[in-house]
Amino acid sequence: MGGAARDLARGVAAAVAHEPAALSIRNVSSLGPREAAEIGRVFESELKPAGAGAAEVQITISENPTQFLLVAEIHRGDERHVMIESWPRAAASAAGGEGAAAQVTLEKKLLWEQDQPILDAAQAGDALVVLDAEHVLRVRGSERQSAPIPLAHPWPRDLRGRLSVSGTAFTAWLPGTLCRGALEPQFSIECRESQEPWLIGPGALATFATPGNFFQGRIDVEPGGVHEVPPFYAAAPAGDGWILAGTDGRARVYTHSWQTAGEAAEMGSDVASIDTPCGGRVIATRPSGPQEPDAVQPFEITGGAARPSGKALEFSGSITALWSAGSSATAVVRDLQTGRYAAFSLAPACGR
Amino acid sequence: MRPSAWLPLAAVSALAVCGGAIRPRYGGTLRVEMRAAPAALDANTPEASPLAALVFEPLLRLDETGTPQPCLAVSWQHEGTGKRWQFNLRPGVKLHDGTQMTPGDVASALQAALPGLAATANGEAVIIRAERGLSSLLLDLAHTRLVSTGPFRVSAFEPGRRVTLAANQDYWDGRPFLDGIDVQLGRPLRDQLVDLELGKTDFAEIAPADLRRASEHGRAVWSSSPVNLLALQFTPGRAEDPRLREALALAIDRAAMHNVLLQKQGEATAALLPQWLSGYAFAFPAAQDLGRARALAGSLPPAARTLTLTYDPAVRAARSLAERVAVNARDAGLAVQVSSQAAQADVRLVEVRIRSLDAARAMVEVAAALALEAPPFVATTAALYEAEHQLLEGRRVIPLFHLPDLYGAGSRVRVFAPPAVTRLGYWRFDQVWLAVKPSGTAP
Which of A170, A299, B60, B204 has an alpha carbon 20 to 30 Å from A69's alpha carbon atom? Predict the structure, then answer.
């Protein structure tokens, strides 16, 4: 930027024969006032200020898809001359927000960040296991090992995946694919095409639609057996019942006998259960508006109704996955500005 | 010329963007209406372009900044003398007939679409020999759709009337959310707007004057960048006195037309390339200068102060714009007769579409469409400005406006990864999904 501004300022100074000139600067680009002021200083240092009758120099800071531009329009009497300098564009940054007050506080801890979409992540002792569309990654300190997931068919859009770690073994469910592996002593993985149901909660299995981004309308809960429900994106135990985020955009509360007890209007498509010191809670994404950062809201389910029971935890991007991990949950967030994915562990604290 | 008129529309368009916390739903058929009525659905027929882009795919694509990105080719490298390039093809891609796409398929399609190239299959790659620079070659390849591997396949086609597309279950980038798309062709704009309001269509083209009406009742308005240049083009051999052309150019009050007739959509301009693409369009003065226009007109012999102006009725707001030009011209002392039928008109109101995200290439294409001398293919923005300045110097073409494509989307239409309409106006229906409409809501 500085080089382009200096080059153009010197060119303009030469074009007005180093005579005084009336300078004005405007910014029609996405550059901020600080950068614009910096550019202004460069021109002010090269051009001598002038009053009426002198050449008029209008500097415009502009942009196109690939470059920022400095356009100098030099007017002297009826003469008009245009000079242009440019430099490649670079990237910028962003912000977040706040929620309402209540009893359960969620704290987030960054587990892992990468460019490729993260589907799920889980702690395994001192190691972290990360699932994405192409790999299962094991991270321990500075040591990283990854095992590839063979692609038997194109993944569906809005790809989802679930990771479960038990001791040194892990299971990864992806649409139409099941992978089992070991973290110790040798990091290994074996995948196969499979329509086996996914473990979606403690003792609860559901079959994933392939291709698709949702679970078919059957849930197998232990004890209790198989129940027919509308197709859903996510399910979580809530008290002695369940809550399901349906593909029709409605989150329904079910009793222990799988009767519909009510609907929760304030939930997005992802729900998960979380054990807190003040009892079990459901956490859910909120149905975000346009270009809004997402948030995770804790709810208490009583009498077939979902009531916010804590402050919403805000993120600076879209939540692309939310899975229960017992006394914590895992949320994956895609940053709105950078496009990078980050997996967070959400831990609850009770009361205040 | 800060594109302030552009901002309100951008805000309206944002309403179409779905929050990340609501997952997209698979299923449903998107109902679409369009004015064009293509008789064939070929890969590179301009009239069928928005539909063809859903069916056929190129070797690579340009992203929103004009940078080549992988599509059917995952990587490319140049070998030896710089006139031989290897494009490594994406493995496992299936054609719509269910067979595997082969390097031979791609080489044949390339050879047919770009006869100046020599394309041959080589293992899992395609080798291209061409007497041109790499950047020019990549642009050609990005603009040339080759084989039917896209997110939707054609399941029925009644030329000029209807197209039915079905989701490609095996699409290499993931099956689209929609089960299908039903497209009615040849629908007048007025009928499209009525159907959108009645909930008979999910997606309709709209005229600038109907923008507010279309965005009522939760319907979203989507738009491309301003990609349609409206300009006055003088007929070769007519209006040969440059004072006459300059007088007309300076007489036109673009700002008034932009505010009233075009409802502030797009941008008033005196440049060939839009501001968003070149970054310097404002440096071509577009303001009316009636004093100088009158002086120029007054210097002409009275018999030379007349012009006939014609227009293509298919151009948006063409008649009212042409009549307004005539009124402005009269204020400057020129007599302009407007007719949609004049075969021998001195000047015509035309619309030219920007089809490239590369400014230099777009300039070459626009110049060709307006019968201007071919500009050099330049590398720097400053040189591009100089080339455009030279093209416009003789005022054989008077640019007036850059207008976007405008679309209305029904209340059940959602977008997974915006935009649903690209800068150049292509439809990304592979990113669209349909929400379940709550009972008792407006269409």
Answer: B60
Of the partner residues A84, A209, A334, the one whose CB lies closest to the CB of residue B280: A84
Interface list for A 252-291 with B (CB within 8 A) = 268-270, 285-291
Identify all chain A residues contacting B64, using CB atoms and an 8 Å cutoff: 65
- How far the first Cα of chain A sits from its last, in Å, is 50
Q: Is the CB of B280 less than 8 angstroms away from the CB of A62?
A: yes
Q: Are B409 and B433 in contact (CB under 8 A)?
A: no
- Partner-chain contact B175 A270, CB within 8 Å: no
A28-42, A61-75, B96-110 — most confident range: B96-110
In this predicted structure, what is the pLDDT of residue B84?
80
Tell me the pLDDT band of B67, cut-offs 50, 70 and 90. Answer: confident
Residue B23 to residue A269, Cβ atoms within 8 A: yes
Who wins on pLDDT, B50 or B247?
A: B247
Overall fold of domain A104-351: Methylamine Dehydrogenase; Chain H (2.130.10)
Domain with CATH 2.130.10.10 in chain A: 104-351
CB contact A69 to B (< 8 Å): yes
Give the pLDDT score at A53: 63
Residues of B in contact with A71 (CB under 8 A): 279-280, 282-283
Residue B7 near chain A (CB below 8 Å):
no
Of the candidates B14, B169, B177, the beta carbon closest to that of A290 is on B14
Residues of chain A with CATH 3.30.160: 2-99
Please report which confidence band the pLDDT of residue A312 belongs to, taking 50, 70 and 90 as the band edges: confident
pLDDT band at B143 (very low <50, low <70, confident <90, very high): confident
Cβ within 8 Å, pair A65-B66: yes
Shortest CB distance from A290 goes to which of B19, B275, B416? Answer: B19
Residue B19 has pLDDT above 50, yes or no: no
Identity of the residue in A64, A73, A289 whose CB atom sits nearest the CB atom of B19: A289
Q: What is the pLDDT of residues B318-375, one digit of tens each?
A: 899 999 999 999 999 999 999 887 778 999 999 999 988 889 889 999 999 999 998 8
pLDDT in tens, B183-226: 999 999 999 999 999 999 999 999 888 888 887 766 888 999 99
Smallest CA–CA distance, residue B373 to chain A, in Å, is 22
Give pLDDT, residue A181: 94
Report how far residue B375's alpha carbon sits from residue A107's, in angstroms, rounded to the nearest whole number.
60
Interface of B with A in 19-58 (CB under 8 A): 19-26
Contact at CB, A28 and B357, closer than 8 angstroms: no
Residue B410 pLDDT: 92
Domain A2-99 coded CATH 1.10.1740: no
